[in-house]
Amino acid sequence: MEQKIWHRHELPIFEDLLKYQQGLVDDFMKGHTNLKEAVFAQSENTINPGYYDGDQMNMAEGMLVSRDPTTLKWATDFTAWQSVGLKNVIKIDGKIQTYEVAPQETVDKYPTAKSIMEEYGDDLYGLVYSAIGPYSILQRHVGPENIDGVYLRVHIPLIVPPGDIFLECDNEEATWNDILGFNNQHLHSAHNYSNEWRLIMIADIARERCGLPPGRRFKDTTERENPFVRGWQF
Fold this sequence. Notes:
Layout: E1 5-7, H1 13-18, H2 21-29, H3 35-42, E2 44-45, H4 55-60, E3 64-67, E4 74-76, E5 81-92, E6 95-101, H5 104-109, H6 111-120, E7 124-132, E8 136-141, E9 151-159, E10 165-169, E11 172-175, E12 180-182, E13 188-192, E14 198-206
């Protein structure tokens, strides 16, 4: 069976990345008293509704849902997933299709993330602060930017409140209590059923740098399935 999630004890690179953990938190929280305040002062909608229209919007709606504390109903909420993107590289068939790095003043604002970018260089395909709001679900999706399976998506937990908070990848659950990596070409979803915001750092690192063999190429990057459920509803 193909492995989809890797835990701390399985890859030595995780210990190296954890040395940045506290610095990443300190940089993001500098000048702020709570995570929600820090998120909305620095981040933007990860799923921007302005990028969608017509049929595309129909696909986007319901992708990110939050539970209204008053009505207890779930509805699309594009503000529930906020991020600060620092680097994004897309390579398909060995050729770079996209190479984006945040403006220098933004990178300089996060010196710890800057150190990661310098240490990993071209082996780092993506680096993103990622926050998900309370009672929110990022529904099942795949990562079309990693169609060649060239990197492992690593989640470094930064601020993770207690409660039912987890990543799901192809029906396997993993919490953010510790660092983890996963193959984002498999269907996956993110769940935060707590009443607080959750913050992680996403680092997309070349599989070779992680000590892993090359990944397989995926044929379908638009696959969708029914939302992940455990047999009960909130």
